[in-house]
Design brief:
By secondary structure, the chain is an alpha/beta fold. Helix content is 33%, strand content 27%. The chain is built from 9 helices and 14 strands. An 8-stranded mixed β-sheet has the order 8-9-10-7-11-12-13-14, covered by helices on one side. Strands 3-2-1-4-5-6 form a 6-stranded parallel β-sheet, with helices on both faces. Strand 12 and strand 13 form a beta hairpin. The longest helix is centred in the C-terminal third of the chain and has 18 residues. The radius of gyration is 19 Å and the shape is globular. It binds NADP nicotinamide-adenine-dinucleotide phosphate (NAP). The site of NADP nicotinamide-adenine-dinucleotide phosphate has 20 residues, from helix 1.
Length: 324
């Protein structure tokens, strides 16, 4: 079976996605939609795609599309996902899946009702380095994990109508970057039972710096930071009872891991060829082939729970999106 993909939103990440798709078996991009035919054409010409639409609704109606990759800014993820799910398409929706947990729940409910596959495009989870991390933790190589520290931040000029700084597009460091440290905490420690956060909001009202401590059951902590105005190490460290594992920059897509355990120090290569976004597509194909409507690696329930953690942090630092 070849999965026929549609791309919604031919922007920066959709370009990387198309590059990754060239290395994926069992699927191809057959259509792309934009608000402008010119932009759809440019993307389609570049990647040799036949179907090109100047509306997202037209893509939803294309019977030659099985699955849609939603690659628009966060604020449009809910409407787009509902549009494609209602049309009977499987959906892989960019991170953050939604602006808040209420939206995420509605999207999950719609996909489950329709019986189509749906997953947040949390690509980190499917990279060789993250697979290796899960294996190392499962083998008890650092004992019981007790602490996850992770950050992701850089300094970038404030451009008020850029999606990173525009509240209407779901701007802010937390949803764009902080979600990666948070998902690492939930991957390693499970869901937190309480959160303490502080942050600094910029002139456009988005969080330009945010830090949070996640308390997990069993006396375990996650310490996460994200920023759009401060350069951070963009690394992660997981400390356990018998050692630690370090994820080098960038912690959301590392190509190696360092581990220190009872057996000593080890540097493990976990590199990959080509664009790393492709590994999550392999997972979608695997799930579809097995008749699964959710991935056990990035379940909708975990996505909703992560949205809830982000909501909790935003409530404490005062970031509110229009319509909330
Ligand atoms: N996985 C990763 O590493 C990664 C990296 C970057 C971004 N992302 C995620 O991908 C999403 C898109 O980010 P991006 O950097 O690719 O954004 P972008 O370059 O600004 O592209 C977004 C696309 O969305 C479309 N769009 C549809 N409705 C829109 C609207 N009302 N306003 C603005 N754009 C609209 C635009 O296409 P038309 O104007 O042609 O319709 C545009 O090409 C975000 O949710 C982000 O978090 C993920």
């Amino acid at each position: 079976m070849t999965v026929r993909w549609g791309v919604a939103g031919p922007g920066a990440i959709a370009t990387s996605f198309a590059q990754g798709m060239t290395m994926v078996d069992g699927g191809e991009i057959t259509a792309v939609a934009s608000r402008s035919l010119e932009r759809a054409d440019a993307y389609a010409d570049r990647f040799g795609i036949t179907g090109r639409y100047e509306s997202y609704e037209a893509l939803a109606e294309d019977p030659g599309v099985d699955a849609v990759y939603v690659a628009t800014p966060h604020a449009y993820h809910e409407a787009m996902t509902l549009l494609f799910v209602e049309a009977g398409k499987h959906v892989l929706c960019e991170k953050p899946f939604a602006l808040n947990a209420r939206q995420a729940q509605r999207m999950a409910d719609a996909a489950r009702t329709k019986g189509v596959f749906c997953m947040e495009a949390m690509w980190s989870r499917f990279l060789p380095a993250y697979r290796l991390l899960v294996d190392l933790l499962g083998e008890g190589r650092i004992g019981e994990p007790l602490l996850v520290e992770a950050d992701f931040g850089y300094r970038t000029p404030v451009v008020p109508d850029d999606r990173h700084f525009d509240l209407h597009q779901g701007g802010g460091a937390l949803l764009d970057l902080g979600i990666y440290p948070v998902q690492l905490c939930t991957l390693v420690l499970g869901l937190p039972d309480r959160v303490a956060a502080d942050g600094i909001l910029g002139s456009t009202g988005v969080d330009e710096q945010v830090a949070a401590v996640l308390h997990h059951p069993g006396d375990r902590l996650g310490v996460v930071k994200a920023a759009l105005q401060v350069s951070m190490s963009c690394t992660a460290r997981i400390a356990g009872t018998d050692g630690w594992i370090q994820l080098p920059a960038f912690m959301h897509c590392p190509e190696s891991l360092d581990i220190a355990g009872p057996a000593g120090l080890e540097h493990i290569d976990a590199g990959h060829e080509g664009e790393g976004l492709r590994f999550q597509v392999d997972e979608v194909h695997r799930c579809l082939a097995e008749g699964l409507t959710e991935s056990p690696v990035m379940s909708l329930d975990e996505t909703i729970a992560i949205s809830g953690v982000l909501d909790d942090i935003r409530a404490q630092i005062g970031v509110v999106y229009p319509g909330e």
